[in-house]
Amino acid sequence: xxTTLLIGASSAVAKEVAKALFAKNERVISISRNEPDxxxxxxxxxxxxxxxxxxxxxxxxxxxxxxxxxxNLKPFRGLKENDFLNDFNINVLGAIKSIQTYxxxxxxxxxxxxxxxxxxxxxxxxxxxxxxxxxxxxxxxLTRSLAAEFAPKIRVNCVAPSLTHTPxxxxxxxxxxxxEASANRHPLKKIGEPKDLANMVEFLLSxxxxxxxxxxxxxxxxxxSIKNA
Length: 229
What we know:
Layout: E1 3-7, H1 12-23, E2 27-32, E3 42-45, E4 63-66, H2 81-106, E5 112-117, H3 120-123, H4 130-150, E6 154-161, H5 176-184, H6 194-205, E7 216-219
Parallel strand pairs: 1-2, 1-4, 2-3, 4-5, 5-6, 6-7
Helix pairs in contact: 1-6, 2-4
């Protein structure tokens, strides 16, 4: 039975991943601030703050997914040092600490996979995205570096989405007009759903992606690579 660790498991995308893995009778370990409204085998409460450590786990971990993120959209001149530090702590240091904690468990597997999250705003410059682009850009660098260092034992990949229907993005999609305007900025003329991202995560965790590592997978409605008409 495969064991997958979902960090930030109460997020909308994590819930979809948990459902898919649980349906395949896999062991799902969830770590988050709050107990997720999704199926899991084990749950550990964790609130990132200061020197707080991730819970120690015994045995093999076959997959690790780090979901925590932020949407801190401000004009560059309005950003304070704490904005950059907070985004970096959530997006980068949290991922680093989790991977360092669970690398020994992952090394026990013969098919281990790590999945991280970036954003389309790293590849495509967007106004008001400086702070999040800095931290997620670091995640893309970390993905490639760890993929090289951990090969061939552990694969490391990253999902880079555009705006998706999740509670985190709710204020950006709070009216039909906002939804339509945002959808029209994407070549596919629609907003992503949590299931769209979960499908990619499930693929990257599976043996169907066994020859893929160090990649940034753009699940973004075409925004990162196609000029919008």
